[in-house]
Amino acid sequence: MENRKYRMEFEVHYHEVNPYEKATPLTILHYLEDAAISHSEAVGQGFKRLRFKKQAWILNKWQLEMERYPVLGEKVTIETWSAGFERFYGTRDFLIIDKDQKIIGRATSLWIFYNTESKRPSRIPPDFEDAYGVDSLRAIKESLEDPTIGEGEQEEGNEQIFAVRRSDIDTNGHVNNANYLQWMLEVVPEDIYQNNHLTALEITYKKATTYGTSICSKCYVANPRDNNSAYRHVVLGNDDRQELAIAKTVWGPLK
Prior knowledge:
The chain is an alpha+beta fold. The chain is 18% helix and 38% strand.
């Protein structure tokens, strides 16, 4: 089956950069999400069509690896494609490419096809494979270690409470997936955050949350005996303490 890879260009704007004038990890996730949405629109399976059918894609997992982050004013191209459909799961991969056609980032994602009326996963229609095409080539071949926080890692860590704002909510009525990463990054130790950049991320979304609630973001050193700047994260409902998202982040020196 012919795979129709989709390309979309982005220019890094001022409100998308950090103090070093580089795009933030949150910006990169927004680019990836925008490219995925545009691809679906281009093949006739866009947001309005799905909403009419009471259907939606719900993100289950992101995995991201960055060689470097684009700088203010730089143009990058996101290339994305469908890597497969299985029952109610869809896999989508991405490459982030600079003007010299060098790959500076890679990502893979897992999505659940969802019925918004029954609020349950729904089998993906057979015509989706014909619409998107499928390429089983993966942008990232290996997963990071299990991001689940072990008992021994919970002894020390940073945590902070956040209120869910109106601006956090997406078209499905839930907190946008990228905002969970923002909450996670807020509790990374300051010396790590200021002197390093996020080189790898794996985040799994477990339960949606909505406006008017509060969450607790916690961060723990992944391997306390190693100096590898890796952290495990969990976002909890502040009232019921249910896990909303878990993640692992890996940090490297600024380039």
